[in-house]
Amino acid sequence: MVDVSQHELVPEHTVLEEETLEEVLTEYDIDRTDLPKIKRNDPALPDDAAVGNVIKIVRDSRTTDQAVVYRLVVE
Amino acid sequence: MTEVEYDVDDDTIAVVEDTDLPRRLKNEVYEELETRPDATVEDADELAKAVETRYVDTRVDPLDPVGTVSAQSIGEPGTQLTMNTFHYAGVAEIDVTQGLPRLIELVDARKTPDTPMMTVHLEDEYATERERAHEVVWNIEATKILALGDVSTNVADMRVQISLNRDTLEERMITPEEVAEIIEDELGVSTVQQGTEIQFGPEEPSYRDLLQLVEELRDITFKGIEDISRVVIRREEMDDGSEEFVLYTEGSAFGDVLEIEGVDASRTTCNNIHEIHRNLGIEAAREAIIEETNNTLAEQGLDDVNVRHLMLVADIMTNNGEIESIGRHGISGSKDSVLARAAFEVTVNHLLNAAIHGEVDTLQGVTENVIVGKPIKLGTGDVDLRMGSIDSSSESQAD
Question: What is the CATH code of the structural domain delimited by B116-142+225-269?
C-alpha cells in the first residue's frame, strides 16, 4: 500500500489532545460540531483516529507560512 | 523566539516580531531593512508599524460578505474564458478541456472529467534513463492486440490467426505464451500457439461467432491499465535544474498507477478531484481544487484572480468531509432556509415539501430577508445603532 502521507498534496494530520481541543474551541467560541469534517475512512487519517476525535492539520499555506486547521472525524 | 535568518540586529528583530504581521510579511520587512544598513531601530519600528497598519487595513472586516465577493471576483473574469472545449494543453500533445467548461466541471464536482489525464513522475533511475522510463510506460499504457501483431480471419477453416511481432513483444515484456493464456481466459476458447503464431476459433463453425471473437479480441487489454489509452513521455527540466522523464497519460487510474514500481507516489497527480479524494483524502482534494481552478484561470491569462477566492470555494466544497458541488444538488440545495432554496431553483417543489413537513424559516440569510423586505444581516445591516448616553445605573435595563 502506498504511504499517502508522503504525497505532496497531503498536509500533516495529527490527532488533537482533548485539553488542547478545549483551548481551540474556546478561542474560536464554537462547538466541536461546528468544525469542518473529515470522514472516518479518509486515507490520510492517522491510524489512531476515531470518530469524535479532532484532527489538527498543518497546511503549507499559499497566503501565509503555515495554516493550522481542524477537522472533526465523522462516520 | 523564531529564527530569523536575516542580517539585522536583535533590537530590530524585537520590534518587527512584536507586530501582528504574518511570517511572510515579516520576512519582507527584514529583507527591506537589510538593504538599508544605516536604518536605526526607530526607523525599523516605523517601517514595521506602517506595514502593520496597511496589513490590518486590508483584512476582511467583520460581517463582510466574502462569499458574494468571491462569486463576483471569479464570475467576472469567467466571462472572458474560452467556450471552446478542446485545446492543446501546451505540454505533451494531449488534449485537455480548458477554459469555462473545465471551470464548470470543477465547481460542479463531476464524477469524471471530460478529458481525464495524469501527470506521472518517476523515481530514481526510472526518471533518468529512457529505457527504464519506458518500462513504466508499458506497465501503464493499455496494450491491445493490434499493437502486438496482425490479426486475420481464415473463413475457410473458421479460425482467427494472430501473428505476433517478436520485437514488440520483447519491448513490451510479454511472451506469446502469456498472450495465448490471456486470450483463453478472456474469451473462453482453446488456443494453439506455435512460436509467435496463435490460432483459435469458435467451438461450432459459425461465421457470426467468428466475427464476434475478433471483436472481443480487439477489446482485451494484454498489459497496462485499461482506462489509459495513451502515454506521452517527455524530458523535463525540474526546478533544481536537473532533467528527468515525466509521463502524461490520456485517461486516468490514479490508485492503480501509484502502486506501479518506478512511479513516484509523492508527486504524481491527476486532474480528477474525486480520484484524488479517494486515494489521498479530503485535504488533498481541497489542494487539488485550488490548484486546478487556479491553473484553469492562469492558462487563460486570468491569474490576477486572488487565490483566496478559490481557497474559499475549495473550503466550502470540502467542508463536510467529502466533495460537494456548488449548485442545486450541492451547497445551494442544502441551505437551511426554505425561501432561499425556493428562490434558487424548482420553487414549487421546495415550498410544497416545506409545507408538508412544517418547516420553519428563521430568516437568517440574505435571500430570505430580501424576499420579506427586511434589512439583510450583513455589513451595516447586522449592527444596531442607538443614540444617547449610557447611564451606568440604567445600563442593565436599557437592553
Answer: 3.30.70
Name residues whose C-beta falls within 8 Å of residue B61's C-beta, 6 or more positions apart in sequence: none
d(CA B105, CA B25): 35
List the CATH code of the domain at B336-382: 1.10.150.390
- Inter-chain CB proximity B276 and A9 less than 8 Å: yes
Q: Does A44 touch chain B (CB under 8 A)?
A: yes
A36, A42, A66 member nearest B319 (Cβ): A36
Lowest mean pLDDT among B7-11, B27-31, B275-279: B7-11
Cell of B334: 442544502
Is the pLDDT at B149 greater than 50, yes or no? yes
How many whole angstroms separate alpha carbon B126 and alpha carbon B133?
5
For B64-113+271-334, which CATH class? Answer: mainly alpha
What was the ipTM of the complex prediction?
0.94
Nearest residue to B221 (alpha-carbon basis) of B164, B138, B144: B144
Q: pTM of the entire structure?
A: 0.82
- Residue B125's pLDDT band (boundaries 50, 70, 90)? confident
Selection from B10-19, B232-241, B248-257, B277-286 with the highest mean pLDDT:
B277-286
- Looking at CATH, the fold of the domain delimited by A4-74 is given as Eukaryotic RPB6 RNA polymerase subunit (3.90.940)
Query: What is the least distance, in Å, from the CA of B32 to any CA of chain A?
Result: 18
CA distance B229 to B212: 23
- Per-residue pLDDT tens over the stretch B152-191: 888 888 888 888 888 888 888 888 888 888 888 888 888 8
Report d(CA B117, CA B254) in Å as an integer: 9
The answer to whether B211 and B152 have CB atoms below 8 angstroms apart is no
Contacts of B150-158 with C-beta under 8 Å, sequence gap 24+, read B151/B214, B151/B217, B151/B218, B153/B210, B153/B211, B153/B214, B155/B207, B155/B210, B157/B201, B158/B201, B158/B202, B158/B205, B158/B206, B158/B207, B158/B210
Min CA distance, A53 vs chain B (Å)?
14
What's the pLDDT score for residue B312?
Answer: 94
Q: Which CATH architecture has domain B143-219?
A: 2-Layer Sandwich (3.30)
Contact criterion met (CB < 8 Å) for A36 and B284: no
Mean pLDDT estimate for chain A: 89
Work out the pLDDT band at B229, boundaries 50, 70, 90.
Answer: confident
Contact B264, A6 (CB under 8 A): no
Which residue type is seen at A51? V
Residue B142 is given by DSSP the state P
Determine how many CB atoms are found less than 10 A away from the CB of residue B393: 7
